[in-house]
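Re: the 169-residue chain
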Amino acid sequence: AWEMFFSPETKKIQTTWGGIIRLILSIENKPIDKENILDFQKNSLGREKGNNFLLELLPLPHRSISNWDYSSYNLPQFSSRKNYVKHYTPERIKQIKKLIAENNPEVVVFYSKIYVKHWKEIIGVEENIELKPYYIKNGKTIFVICNHPAFRNKKDYYPEIGKKIRKLL
C-alpha cells in the first residue's frame, strides 16, 4: 500500500494526506496544484529531514469509525473500538504531550473532531470548541483542531486554515 501513494511513480493523491499537504503548502505560501501536492506526498510528507511530523492518536488503520477489524485477535483491548480507545488513549496522550514539550513545534494540527476531548487534554485547555477550525496558541505552539480531510470539506478548507496559521506565525 505504501508504494501506491508514496513511491516516485505514484500519480494518485491520498485523501487524508492530500488535505494535510494542502494545509502545509498554504502555510509555506506555495502553489496548491496537483503537481506540487504529489511532489510533497512523494518526497516530503513525514520524511526524516522534512519540516513535518505525522503521528496518529490511535494508529491502527480502519476503513471508518464504525468499522472494527481487530476483534478476532482475542485480546480484551481489541474486542471493540471502544475498548481499544479506552486502553490506549491515556498513554498515547502522555506520549504526544511529551513529544510536543520536547520539540516545541510551531504548529500542531489535530484533524478529526471526534477526538476533541483528547486534543483539548493534549493542548491543556478546558474551553468549549466550536464546530469550525479552532486555533489556540499555548506557549510557542499554535494548535489547530479541524475536520478530517476525508470529511466533506470545501475545496479551500485546508488552504484557508494554512493562510490563517501563516498569519499567526
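The first helix runs from residue 2 to 6.
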